[in-house]
C-alpha cells in the first residue's frame, strides 16, 4: 500500500467517523455540563491533539534528520507522517470549532479546537520543511 493510499484511507475513516458521530454529539452537547466533565466536544479536541503533537515531534525529528544532525537518512517518511498528522489535527480541530455553539467552559471543546488549529499547522510546516529539505539533498 502506497503512502498516498494510506493517507486517503485515513482521511476517509476520519471523515466517516465525524459524519457518523455528529448527530450523537449534538444531542450530548445540548446538556449543561460541569467544568471537569468530559463531553464529546472536549473528547474530539483532545483526540485530535494527539496526532497533532505526535506530528510536531516527528516533524521536528525529520527536519533534524534531513539536516544531517541526527542519524543518516533523509527523514522523508517522517515528513509525510508529520504532514498527515498535522492535517488530521487541523481538520478535526476546525470541525470542533465550527460545531461549537458556546464559548470556553460550555463543554463544546472550543478551546481544544483552537489548540488543534495551532498545533496542526505547526506539524504541517515542520513536515513540509523536512520534505523540501530532503528533496534538495536527495
UniProtKB/TrEMBL annotation:
Keywords: Membrane, Signal, Transmembrane, Transmembrane helix. The chain crosses the membrane at residues 46-67, 79-100, 106-132. It comes from the Bacteria. Pfam families: DUF6223. Residues 1-26 form the signal peptide. InterPro entries: DUF6223. This is DUF4383 domain-containing protein. It comes from Streptosporangium carneum.
Amino acid at each position: 500500500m502506497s503512502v498516498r493510499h494510506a493517507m486517503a484511507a485515513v482521511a476517509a475513516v476520519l471523515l466517516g467517523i465525524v459524519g457518523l458521530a455528529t448527530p450523537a454529539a449534538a444531542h450530548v452537547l445540548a446538556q449543561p455540563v460541569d467544568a471537569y466533565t468530559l463531553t464529546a466536544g472536549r473528547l474530539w479536541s483532545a483526540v485530535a491533539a494527539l496526532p497533532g503533537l505526535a506530528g510536531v515531534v516527528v516533524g521536528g525529528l525529520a527536519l533534524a534528520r534531513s539536516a544531517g544532525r541526527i542519524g543518516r537518512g533523509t527523514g522523508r517518511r517522517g515528513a509525510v507522517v508529520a504532514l498527515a498528522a498535522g492535517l488530521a489535527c487541523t481538520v478535526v480541530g476546525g470541525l470542533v470549532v465550527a460545531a461549537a455553539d458556546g464559548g470556553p467552559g460550555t463543554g463544546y471543546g472550543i478551546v481544544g479546537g483552537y489548540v488543534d488549529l495551532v498545533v496542526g499547522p505547526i506539524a504541517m510546516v515542520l513536515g513540509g520543511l523536512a520534505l523540501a529539505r530532503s528533496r534538495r539533498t536527495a
